[in-house]
Amino acid sequence: MTVPDPSGTDSASAGRPSRRAVIGYALLFALPVGVGVAVMMLRVTAATPTDALVVGPSLALAAVVFLLVVAVSVSGSPEP
């Protein structure tokens, strides 16, 4: 019978950041992008913050950055 490690890490994930750290970094980089695109779209289109023309691109770009950071973190570094 094996007892799970209370720290949540195993030998396969040694050296990789925790899931919480990955999500934190992904949000750290994605949220400013989403807010910046929303502010830019508000100024360019003179729309309200709830218009699809503002919400759509800001959510789409924030989601792309979020998923990119998560994918890079999960796949690991290409350096040996």
What's the short story on this structure?
With about 80 residues, the chain is mainly alpha-helical. The protein has helices spanning about 20-45, 50-75.
Structural class computed from helices and strand pairing: mainly alpha
- Outline type: elongated
Strand content: under 5%
Distance between the termini: 34 Å
Give the helix level as a range of percent: 55-70%
Please compute the radius of gyration using only Cα atoms: 18 Å
Point out poorly predicted stretches.
none
Average pLDDT for all residues? 82
**Largest sheet properties:** none
Q: Could you state the order of secondary-structure elements as H and E?
A: HH
Describe this structure in words.
With 80 residues, the chain is mainly α. The chain has one domain (16-75). The protein is 64% helix and 0% strand. It has 2 helices and no strands. It has helices spanning 19-45, 52-75. Helix 1 (19-45) packs antiparallel against helix 2. The protein starts with 18 loop residues before the first helix and ends in a 5-residue tail after the last helix.
